[in-house]
Structure formats: C-alpha cells, structure tokens
Amino acid sequence: MSELKQEYKPLIVAFCCNWCSYAGADLAGSNRLAYPADVKIIRVPCSCRVNPMFILRAFQRGADGVILCGCHPGDCHYTTGNYYTRRRMSMLFSMLDYLGIERERTRVEWVSAAEGAKFAATMNDFAKKVASLGPNKRLEDLRCKP
Amino acid sequence: MTNEQLKQEILRISNVNVTKCMKCGKCTASCPAYDEMEYHPHQFVSMVNNGDIQPLLNSESIYRCLSCFACMERCPRGVEPAKLVEAVRLMAVRKQGANRMKAEDVPCMLDENTPGQLLVSAFRKYSK
Amino acid sequence: MQRIGVFVCWCGSNIAGTVDVHAVAEALKNESGVVFSTDYQYMCSQAGQDIIKNAIAEHKLTGIVVCSCSPRMHEATFRKTAAAAGLNPYMVEIANIREQCSWVHKDMLSGTEKAVILGRAAIAKVHLNAPLTPGQSPVAKRALVIGGGIAGIQTALDIADAGFPVDIVETKPTIGGKMAQLDKTFPTLDCAACILTPKMVDAAQNELIKIYSYSEVSQVSGYVGNFDVTIKRRARYVKEDLCTGCGLCTEKCPQKKVPNEFNLGMDNRRAIYIPFAQAVPKIATIDPDYCTMLKTGKCGICSKVCTAGAIDYTAKDEYITEKYGAIVVATGYNPISMEKFDEFAYSQSKDVITSLEFERLTNAAGPTAGKLLRPSDGEHPHKIVFVQCVGSRCDSCAEKGKEYCSKICCMYTAKHAMLTRDKYPDTEVYVFYIDVRTPGKAFDEFYRRAVEEYGVHYVKGMVGKVVPQGKKLMVQASDLIDGKQLHIDADLVVLAAAIEPDKSARPLATMLTASMDTNDFFTEAHPKLRPVESPTAGVFLSGACQGPKDIPETVSQASAAAAKVIGLLCKDHLTGNPCVASANEMLCSGCSQCANVCPYGAITYSEKEFRMPNRTTLMRRVASVNPAVCQGCGACTVACPSGAMDLNGFKNNQIMAEVDAICRN
Amino acid sequence: MKVTYFPGCTLKNKARDLDEYARKSAEALGITLEEPETWQCCGGVFTTANDEVATKLSSVRLLKAAAEAGQPLVTVCSACHNVVKQTNYAMANDPTFADRVNRYMAEKTLYTGDTKVYHYLELLRDVVGFENLAKAVKKPLTGKKIGAYYGCLLLRPGKVMGMDDPENPRIIEDLIRALGGEVVTYARRNECCGGYVSAESPALAKKNSNLIAENAASAGAELLVTACPLCKYNLEKNGSSVPVVYFTELLAEALGLKEDAND
After folding, report:
1. Which domain holds residue C643?
2. Do C342 and D185 touch (CB under 8 A)?
3. CA distance D217 to chain C (A)
4. For residues C496 and C413, is the Cβ–Cβ distance under 8 A?
C-alpha cells in the first residue's frame, strides 16, 4: 500500500502565455533547471486566452492540478490581458473553493521570459503541493476514463 | 516593552504608515511650534520607524505640538505626522499618574477672558 | 480525417540523451490519423527538412507534427518547410520535447513518457487545424503627426527625410511647442530658440511636410495603414495664403489687453497676434474671444491696414479628411496648476512664479527682454528661492499632485540657479530639494558646477509656507542636514511645478483606441522593448505624451518613432497574423462583451440580415473582427458568453483537444 | 428651514457674542436654530488615536440626536465643528470604530454617520447662498478693510472638513464681500494661533499670534474676523494690533441687527 502511494504521480496541466511564461519555461530548459515530468505545458497566446472551461475540462479529465502562468502585471504583451486573467481566475477559484476543490490545486503565477529559475521553482513547489493533496476525485468524470 | 513592541503600539494607535515618508521635511518646514520642539515632525516619523519611541516619550516635544494639522495637510505622501505625536503623547499620559495637567494647576492659568474651550482642550490633550 | 506525419528530432543528444526518440516515433504511429512517423538526428537541417518535404508529397500529408525544440526556436522554419512542399504552413504543430522535456528531466523513462504525451497533444491539435491565410491590407503612404512641438517636428522631419509625406496638426497658431518658450537648454546651455527655430523653418520649407496650425484632430477611423482622419481647421479669420506676416495689424489693433499666453500671461498682446517673431507659419490669428469686430461688429482696423487683404471676419471652421498609414502622437505636456498648492502663495503674490514663467522672465524675447525682474514691481531680486518637486512624487492619498517624478525639474532648476548666479552674482540663490536626480549624460557634472562653481545654496529640505509680507516673501523651510527651520526673506520664489500630459491627450486616446495609464500618459506597446509604439497598431508615441522627458530624450524618441513609421510606410502591403479572432455570426448575440475587453478596438458591430424559416428575414446585430487590427490575444473569446468568438490557431476545441490528450493516461 | 444647533460650552459664557449674533442672524435669514434640550461638551479636541472611543461619544450622541430630529447639525465654534465633523467622518468611514461606538452606546438604533454637519459659514454659503445674503444686507460694511482669520481647526484636515481649500480658503472672504466689506487676504490666515498650548507655553502662543497679526496688519487689515473663541483669545491676549471680532457679529451688524442688541 505504501509502495502504491509512492507510485502516485500527479497530473498537472500548465497553461503558459507565449510571450513571457512559455519563454520562461524555455529558459528553465536552457538552464537545465529540473522540475517533475508530471507538468505538461499548453501554449496559449496570452493568459487571457484561457477559458475557465479549459481548467474545468482538465479536472474533469483527471488532472490533479492546473496552473496558469502569464506575464507580470503591467508587462502583458497585449497590455491588459493578464488583468482579465487575474479577475476571471479569482472568480473561478472561489467557485472551485465553493465546490470543495482544494485551493492548492489551482494557481496563477506571473513568470517573465527572464525568470527560468522562478518557473522551475514554481513548478517544483506546485507539483509538491498537488502531490501532497493526492488524486483529484471530486471533479473527475469517470465516464471520461477509457 | 521592546522597541519593536513600542513601535507597533504607536502604529496601532495612530494608524499611520510611516514607510510612505520620502524624507522631504515639508512637515517640519510647516510646523509652527518648531522652535519649542526638541524632536520635529519628520523626526517623529523616522524615529517611530526605527523604534526609537523612548526618547520621544521622554521629550517635552509631545506637549508642544499644537495639533494644528499643518504637517498632515501639507505632507505630499499622506503620512500624517501629527497622528504620531498624538499617539506618543497618549502613550505617555495614559500611564497611571502621568497626567500632565492637574485641576489645581488651572487657577494660575486663568485670566478673565480665558475661554472654556482652552481648558477643555488642554485637559483632553494633557490628561487622562 | 487528417493524414498526419510525425517527425521526432534527436537534436543530436540534446533530446535523444533523455528521450527514447525511436520509442516516441513508434508510440505516436498508433495515434489516430497518423500515417507516417519517423525520427532523425537534426530535423531542422536541410536533410531533415527534406525528409519532411518528401513525406508530405509521398504520404499526401495534410498535417504534420514535429517533436523537437521550442516552437519559439524553429516553428517558423518548419512552417516554411511545409509551405515549400505545398502544405499550408499553419498545418504544422510543434511538440516541445527539448526545453520542456529532455532538458528538464533526468531519467529516460519519464522523459520518453512525457514526450509521447506532448506529441499526442500536438497530434490532437493538428486534427482540428485549418489552413490559414494571412490577410493583406494596403498602406496609405502618408503619416500624421499630432502635435508640433520639438517631438512632432523631429518626427516629421525624419519621416519626410525618408521620402514620405507628413502632416503636422498643431492646436496653437504656431509650431514650436514648449521648447520655443524656453531660454537656454541644459546641460550645454545653448539657446533653445537658436537650435529650435532652424528646425521649425526646415519643417515649413520641406515640400513633404504640411503644417495644419490652429487645427485639431476631430475624428479618427480605420486601422494601421488605413486611417481616415478628420482635421478641424479652426477659423483664424486670416487667409493663410494671403497673409505675409508683416505684423502691421498686430501693431494697430486697438484691443491691447489680451493676456499673452506665450509669455504665460505676464504681459499682454493684441486681439490679432503672431505668437512670437519666429512663429511658423508666420501668419496672424484673430482671437475671437477678444476681437471687438467679431464680438460687436464695430472696428475692422486690422482689415483696413492689411495691404494683402488677408483679413476675413466671416471665416468658419473647416473640416478636411485625409488618409494616413501611420499616426504619431506628440501632444506633449503642461505644468500642473498651482491652485491647490497655495501654501506657496502662488495665487497671493506675483513674485511666486513657476519655472516656466521663470524661463520667460529670463528669455531675451520675454516680457522683460531677458532682464530678471520681479513681476510685481520690476525690481531686481536679490534673493531667490527655488522649490523642487511641487506636485511631483505625491502619494495618491494626498489627493493633490502626481505620483510620478517629473524628471526634468532637477536639471532645469540647476540651470536656472546657475544662470542667475552667472548673470547676477549679487543674487543669493537657494534650492530646496528632496533628492537631486541627474541621470543623464553630463547631468550630474552640470548640477555640481551649479553648487561648486556658482555657489548655489542647495538645501536638503522643503518649503512649508511662503508668506508675502511687504515687499518680501517670507519663506519658512526645513534644512534637514543642519536640523534647522529656516526663515528666508526672499524676493522671488520659483516653483518647479510637476508636469502632466496635455489635456487634449485623453480625448485623442479615445479616438485612436490607444491606451493610457492612470496619469493620462500614453502607454507603450512594451515598456522596455517597444517604447515608441502604442499597443494599437499604426499608432506611435513621440515625446512627453508617453512620460516626462527632457529635450535630448524627446528628440531620440521622436526619431525612433519616425524610424518605426518609415518601416511601416515602406511596405506596400501589410501581412497580418492569421491567428486572429473571428466571430461566428450564427451564435453572436451582439452583446458587446468582446468589444469591451478588446485592447485594440478591433471589434465592430453591424446589423445583418439573416434568413429565417418561411422566407422571413431577421435583422440582428453581430460582431465582426478587423483582422488587420486584431493582435490575437484571445481576451474576447473568453468574454463571449455565447461561444461565438474564437481564435484562429488557438481555437477552443483545439486547446480542449490538447487538454484531453494530456489527461488521457 | 429648521436645523439642530449646537452652541458648545464656550458660547455659553466667554463667547456669548458668537452665539447671540448667530441666533439673531439666523432668525433674520429665515433659519430656525433648534438647540437640543440637553447636550454635552463636543469633546474639546478630536483625538486622532484609533483606539479611543469614550472621548468621542458625546459628539456621537449629538450627531445621533440631530439624525433623530431629521435635521442637519449646525455648529459655530471652530473647535466644536472640528470635533463633530471628524467624529462624524470616522463614524461614516471607519466601520471598526463605528461598531465599537455603537456597541458601547448600546442604543436601540445604530448611528453610521448620516447626519449632515454644517459650520454656520457653510450654512450661509450652501443653504442661504452668499448672493441671497448680500441682498439681505441692510448696513453694508462699506470701506472696512477686513481680513479673515481661519486658524487651523476650521479647515484641517482638509479631506475631513471638506469646507474649503485648506491652503487658499475663501469662504470667510466671500462672506465679507457679501456683507459689503473690503477683503484683505494675507498668507498666515490659516496658520495656528497657538491653540491650547497657550496653557503651557504662553510664549509660543504669543509668537504665533504676533506673526499672524503682523502679517494681517502689513496687508492692510483693519479688522480680523474669526469663528474660534480660542483664536480670538490668543490674538487679543497677545496684543494684536488689529481688533478681532466674531464673524457672526459682523454678520449681525450688516443685517442691521446689532443696534437692536444694544438697545
């Protein structure tokens, strides 16, 4: 049983904006800063492209944590996109909270193109937190399982 | 109390954000009681920030502030030094037996025109 | 059903060292739609690209997935490869298995497993890709510069230099802006007029530059390369083509009591006036607020003395419309009002002045012909107090002033102090400062000279109160270094007022759909990397409209903006990014949510007729996206409540497919 | 119009003029001043301390009484005005403070700073209107060079008092003009006279009062008007070269009510 527990690998979906965070993730790679392979990145043009629906879909399909990364406030390539993100996500997260989804399963983080180290540290920390929470059961739709 | 505790107490009473100060000295430039004060408004801000409350508590300066709010009004950063002076003075006079002004002091302050307002205000400022 | 080819790159050992590339290629072969899968040492090499091209031809591929380095590295390369093989370049997706896989994971097992998942996600996305063609739009080869100060003039000259026509729109009767009002310029102390007026003349004489003075922009529509701008030409009651600028009318006009704004109201001008001797265009203007003829119909002296017959009391505002490819905003700044800072007694004494007024007082063409005299009694001041940071660096809760540093005051005050001491060594000069900020070439040296060579008293502290008493100004201030309260009986007090964007900037920003910060400065597309472009395509920023700036900085930004404009006007057509939003009219309810969040004003609405059952039709309001203006951020797609708005290249179902593929264990 | 009128302690003895002329003028201008049957001291000074509740309660009771009468509250003395307005502002804008006060008072209804507080000057400006006041003037103060003396409490803190520009006030100047007088402006009109510190340090009060009087005199003022008994006391005690009167006295004089008082 304890062995099984160690085997547990969380599934983490990371949405990264093309201009800052995705570049930050690339920089983490160039600098060989390791983080768990559980993190899978999806590229979006801007963090404001992320529809709350995408995050719910990820949970429904069995993701254990979803993190959304964008440019720092004021640095958005599209000027104001990350402000929309911030507002939308605070709404979504409070709704998830209401549904009983642990607050630590979701996160918004600002990572610039220069912050490779921050990207890696963030992913390590997030993966650890999510792993400590165990598998996401509440929102997972078993009918979606093969 | 430690310096830090004293500082926190002053900040609690006054609700002033001392870190906003940019050390321009406009408060002190505006102060009409400057000559009678040992520590001046800008020093209150900086000394509270540094936790140097004890010298302020022991200083006559806290009884010389006119509470005219000129420093508050003119501060470009909205720091409100007058509230710090008030907080330090209250900390001093709130101690048992630390009243600055006593009823028996009053007669020698009076003249035929002294308005009641003066006595009420002075008692409020100097005594608890 | 797509026919998909998968190409897994080794990147030498960069990928192959941690990812079993053969296994990845094999695993992905089993994905639905994949008809070809292979791996190769360097996919980006010529040989690697040939493999892709051949496979496209041989297997009739409709989409390809390259598992390689970051798309930020080689997406463009592989798109070109696809295009060369006749495949739409937007049918290419990259799975980033280097930066985001092999380089950050240590063991082969998990690396390979993740690479397969990333490949699977890319395949899932390609299934939903559609060929995209970038739109093309023509470019009107003419630029508009709004504002005719040094920023606008420099931008216009540089654009004209490259051979493109430029129009300058200036609200005042002359170009020249604030710089024309200055006396000397720091840190070299050359006279402002001597270096500015030749540029004004260059602009006037340049055949490619047209100056619309006494005019303003009243309407803007269109988008990058294709702006339609309406310019309001205010009636100046003087025919521009006839007036010779002789100035006779301005001498004969009987209305002598008009505050002269060029000298900041420190002297008077006539109702018909030419702002200053070197004005461009040098044409008279009638001030309708003061002209007796226009107000009462009785006078007409200027018309009588004008030998050119240029006076026209019946003139009306005119509107002209012109097409522009690019617009440069150069609306500049103004000192803030001193109304709320009356502790300095600005409203109470004529001898408390702002720094810009001081410039006029020391300017040879100013109200005192360059002699430094007190405005109240015309006497020479012997003690002058300069106060820095008046209204700058204020906290927002202080409810007056500006939060930012106005940037130019430290240097011009040093200049004023130095020039005063140089011309009038018997005058004592005090400068009250909070910090002296001199980051600029030869700036700190300049300030030090004021202190060391000219004996200016710099006092760290602030002025709290200025009390006019008799002929003196009693200045009460703090000296924080000496721990003193100073009382100075000054003859003149000069306030370094904070500067703010011109009031015309806010309505202009609305017309241009260009964004502004909370202080009404225009925001740049990127604070570090795109400092002269507005986020709105085709709109560029020059000078202090973007933030406080001194002349050297303004001129460099003006030229930089010109370079950007030239780069744009050089093109015959603009090729857009096809990854833009588009609205599904069948789903759109015309609610305007998308337009509200669009930072570019790319979304418009129109009434459209839709066919309904039984041969009826229905008019509905629907959104449409201008692909030339849309930058593809996707904010609208999330705001859209009906799901009508989607983003090409990053469609809802594409991202959802990626999510599904990643979560499919 | 009926308003709740709070004279305060000093107006009941040393500053009877301030009170008496305020009442007469109001009557003449069609405003009924209703003094509450019982009232306490305003509190004397408003302590800026966050944690002090008891010293502010008497003002809250007064504000609450006005609220219950459904009337605005009018004060005349600068100090009362300052205390009452600051207390009202705290009740309206500091929920923690308001909550503590309401709990302490334990009354049936809560008070949340809804009463509109006017200084008598504001009443003249905003309710009567200076243009209307000018029309009611019977004996204009023609030829009198008058300086306004605001002191500190009437204007500051500007954000809370919301009466006038604290650095360049004009409300008393406008009043003087409406009454037909000639206005003399001088810079020290918003500087402190020395206030209650004159109890401890008469020298400080003397210095400040003299600076103010000198500044006013050099600007040509022949008369100073004030709304504050303590200002008047300090200026007069320290031998102001310029006579000091209450603004209500000037008002009554211009409205032709003063002789009646003397009769």
Report:
1. 581-648
2. no
3. 10
4. yes
